[in-house]
TrEMBL record:
Subunit organization: Tetramer of two alpha and two beta chains.
GO terms under cellular component: cytosol
Annotated protein name in UniProt: Tryptophan synthase alpha chain
Annotated catalysed reactions: (1S,2R)-1-C-(indol-3-yl)glycerol 3-phosphate + L-serine = D-glyceraldehyde 3-phosphate + L-tryptophan + H2O
SUPFAM superfamilies: Ribulose-phoshate binding barrel
Pathway assigned to this chain's UniProt record: Amino-acid biosynthesis; L-tryptophan biosynthesis; L-tryptophan from chorismate: step 5/5
Amino-acid biosynthesis recorded as keyword: yes
Keyword list, A-Z: Amino-acid biosynthesis, Aromatic amino acid biosynthesis, Lyase, Tryptophan biosynthesis
EC numbers for this chain: 4.2.1.20
Family that this chain belongs to: Belongs to the TrpA family.
A single MF term (Gene Ontology): tryptophan synthase activity
Amino acid sequence: MERIRDAFAALGSNKALIPFIVAGDPDYDQSFAIARAILASGADMLEIGFPYSDPLADGPVIQAAALRSLNRGCQLPDCFRLVRDLRSETNKPLIAFTYVNPLMQYGATRFFAELAQAGGDGVIVPDVPLEEAPELARVAADQGIAWIPLVAPTSGEERIQAIAQQARGFVYCVSSLGVTGERSSISTQVESLVQAVKRHTSLPACVGFGVSTPDHVREIAGYADGVIVGSAYVRRIGDAASGDGDAVEMVTRFTESLKDACRA
């Protein structure tokens, strides 16, 4: 958790860039090389999706990436290995994105212990509702893992307050309803959502879902503490896997353009 706190503190007036990739996509070695390139070219932390066969919060781009990874045999131990291999090279925060089914099948205590041992800092579990989160958040905290909850534009003030008080690391503000995926514009409701979160916690508020371009990042950086970009990265990785470009080169250029947009 301390690495997340320190990363935000070091930014000053700049905003955090938090890319998302899927572990093992299109294979282990390439996902490691892609993650290294993203971190080296300016990302402040990295969100690593642990592939799952029924990713309810994810749109078709990330679903396809999870399928590519699973088809190459990626399992939870491989995801922890990726975190461990990255931790040997970087001190930047590494955040796991998973679903409750694989987490509980593996065992929550075992999952968070192995994530912590690998060098992970936080976890996002989008299909755990507020009412069922306290025990998992406690088990995560016992291992030094930040529980990073999601708030949506439809969350009422009382629910936002309860979610924000449960959070560690930062609060993930969902920019749009529905699943992940690139969007042409960012909802005007998002700034109000961020302001609502900030009324109830001093933790950073970061915006994700649908953030696709440097212009989106620049807009969100005007009111949020960080920007999470997922499908736009994963689409580039998928294009490269299909023979349309070099993934490392593509994510490097994209990260540099997004990082420029995060600067105050």
